[in-house]
Design a protein that fits this description.
The protein has 123 residues and is mainly α. The protein is built from five helices and no strands. α1 runs antiparallel to α3, α3 packs parallel to α5 and α4 packs antiparallel against α5. The longest helix has 33 residues.
Length: 123
């Protein structure tokens, strides 16, 4: 809840926050994209952090490792490349790929946690 609230505040006040540091129009434009991307990733990222901690604490570390490595190499990097360069979305494409990646990871780990397989892992 705290991360989502902070993300909402950053999303809404991205421009005034950046004005503290710069007045350069190009920096402002890219900074707003980056801050809003960081703000939008907060809800799935918070869920992901909790699930990673829960599964690691239960000893189900292999699934966490595979979810992280697999998502980075199979989702985040290829999608960021395609969105940023092929579709010419630039920084917005990279942030979109990051948000999709974390959302998929949170979903996969949520399903793993819900399935309860971590209960049978010997620590």
């Amino acid at each position: 809840v705290i991360m989502s609230g902070a993300g909402a505040a950053v999303f809404l006040f991205a421009e005034p926050l950046l004005q503290i540091f710069t007045s350069e129009p190009d920096v402002m434009a890219q900074g707003i994209i980056a801050l809003r991307g960081a703000a939008l990733i907060e809800p799935p990222l918070s869920i992901y952090f909790v699930l990673v901690g829960a599964l690691r604490g239960a000893g189900d570390t292999r699934v966490v490792l595979l979810a992280q490595a697999g998502a980075i190499w199979l989702i985040r990097l290829p999608l960021a490349f395609v969105l940023a360069l092929t579709f010419d979305l630039g920084l917005a494409g990279v942030w979109t790929a990051n948000i999709i990646d974390i959302t998929i990871r949170a979903t996969v780990l949520g399903l793993r946690f819900r399935a309860g397989a971590w209960k049978s892992v010997l620590v």
